[in-house]
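Researcher: Re-running this chain for the archive, since the previous output was lost when a drive failed. Same request as before.
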Amino acid sequence: MSRKEEIEMLLTRSRRFLETAEHQYEVGYYDLAMFSLEQALQLFLKARLLQNGVDYPRSHSVTALLEMLGKVSQNKEVDRLLEKHLTELGLLEDAYITARYVPRLYRGEEVKKVMESVKELIANV
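Model: Regenerated structure tokens:
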């Protein structure tokens, strides 16, 4: 698979996970919505790293991926958004782990706030 094809595949999956999260949120599946939001952002950031000519690490940390993107792109907006959404990014990282190992209930308000953060990050980095 070419780099361009991999980028397109990652972006398509990212969009699908975001759409899935929106549906899961609407029906009250908040734990699944959080996991889907994490996947949407993680895949998006990996695509953006590839677009910047950098192979992404085999990390699942959206915070680490965002930090790496800020360094390689030298885009100060990435750093600003990282600081602005640090709490929400932490919730996403927890969601990735808890989806597999530990039951965790999320409130609708948490999911809504995280979804807004993910959408802002995707729109601006």
